[in-house]
Amino acid sequence: MIITIDGPAGAGKSTVAKALARRLGFRFLDTGAMYRAVALAGLRQGLDWDVPDDWARLARKLDIKVSGYSIYLNGEDVTDAVRTSEVTSVTRYAADNPRIREHLVELQRAVAGGDNIVTEGRDQGTVVFPKAECKIFLTASPEQRARRRLRDLESQGEPVTLEQVLTAQERRDREDAGRAVGPLAPAPDAVEVCTDGMTVEEVVSQLEKLVRSSDEARMTNDE
Fold it and tell me: Which of 35, 41, 57, 107 has the highest Cβ tally under 10 A?
């Protein structure tokens, strides 16, 4: 069974998807970290953002592996390195590149295989796994999302303000929604869940009910 969780930055997708995967005993796939890994590699190699072909060639050469809740780039654990503001600010160069998206979508489908998996990102229910059995679109108010992102950055020792996070978030929302390939949008059959005022535990419990309901409906239809 494939469960997709899409939504804007700061909606809590990664935290909730990890917790849901643990509760269900499913594998977890953080697709955003894969694009971030490409961005990190591009930064390290000093690629010109205005030469997309160079980015595409680089992506094809990289060894990107997802293991549990960690992401590896050419054998190096870059789980924390891909979450910095510097990497976040340039990840769009990877995410907006059609050839990179095509390559990473292939990798994501290969990683999923035929396993039970919870996968989160921007286009999981619309592009990568359009036939997923349960699709969720997780969202929250801009202020709530920005505060979550601020806490994450502060925990990494990055000196940023809420205003800076909000500005960056607004820009990223526009870019994600306007992307030519794999734009951020809920799948027609996705269930939208707003996490404002809810604890992680409450959100996970609500999503678990949705998943189990979808699974029961699927089993009934198969009979």
Answer: 35
